[in-house]
Design a protein that fits this description.
With 159 residues, the chain is an all-alpha fold. It has one domain: Up-down Bundle (Ferritin), CATH 1.20.1260. The chain is built from 6 helices and no strands. Helix 3 (23-46) packs antiparallel against helix 4 and helix 3 (23-46) runs antiparallel to helix 5 (96-121). The longest helix is centred in the last third of the chain and has 28 residues, at 126-153. The protein has helices at residues 3-11, 14-19, 23-46, 50-76, 96-121, 126-153.
C-alpha cells in the first residue's frame, strides 16, 4: 500500500472502489497484529529490567485487543479470521535495545498500512475506514510507549 494505491483510488470508478476486496487486507492486518503481540511477549521474557518486562507485556495485551478488533471486522465482512498459532521467528536484533527499535519500526509500518487502506476505502466503507484510523491511533500510542522504553534502556538513543 502506498502512494500508487492512493493514486489508483483516484482513478477508479465508484463500482471498482466498491469491489475492492477488503478481507485479504484486513486479514493481513490481523495476522500482523497477532505476530506483533507474540513478538512483544517474547521480548518481555528477555527484558533486562522489570519496567521493560511489564511495559512489553502491557503492549502485547493491547496488541491482542487490536487483533481482536480486526478479527471482528473480518467477521463483519463475512469471513473467518482463523487462528494464528505459529508466531514468526524472533526479531533478529542481538540486544534488547535493537529489538525495541525493530518493534517500533513494525508499529510504524502498521500505522502506514492502516492509514493507507483507510484512505483507499473512505468513500465506499466510511465506518470501516474510521475503525482503521482508530486502530492506527492505538498503534501510534504503542509507538510512543516503545520510544519511552527505548529511552529508558538508552537515554541517548532517540537524540
Amino acid at each position: 500500500m502506498g502512494v500508487l494505491n492512493r493514486i489508483k483510488g483516484l482513478f477508479l470508478s465508484e463500482e471498482e472502489r466498491d469491489a475492492h476486496d477488503l478481507k485479504p487486507q484486513v486479514r493481513r492486518f490481523y495476522v500482523d497484529a497477532m505476530h506483533r503481540a507474540a513478538q512483544l511477549r517474547a521480548q518481555a521474557g528477555t527484558a533486562p529490567h522489570a519496567a521493560g518486562r511489564d511495559g512489553l507485556r502491557q503492549l502485547a495485551e493491547s496488541e491482542d485487543e487490536v487483533a481482536r478488533r480486526l478479527g471482528k471486522i473480518i467477521h463483519d465482512l463475512g469471513s473467518f479470521a482463523g487462528d494464528v498459532t505459529r508466531a514468526p521467528e524472533p526479531i533478529g536484533a542481538l540486544n534488547y535495545w535493537g529489538r525495541l527499535a525493530q518493534a517500533l519500526e513494525a508499529h510504524k509500518a502498521a500505522i502506514k498500512d492502516l492509514l493507507d487502506e483507510a484512505t483507499l476505502i473512505t468513500d465506499s466503507h466510511p465506518q470501516l475506514a474510521d475503525e482503521l484510523r482508530a486502530l492506527a491511533r492505538i498503534e501510534d500510542g504503542h509507538g510512543a510507549r516503545l520510544r519511552a522504553l527505548i529511552a529508558k534502556s538508552d537515554p541517548q538513543a532517540l537524540d
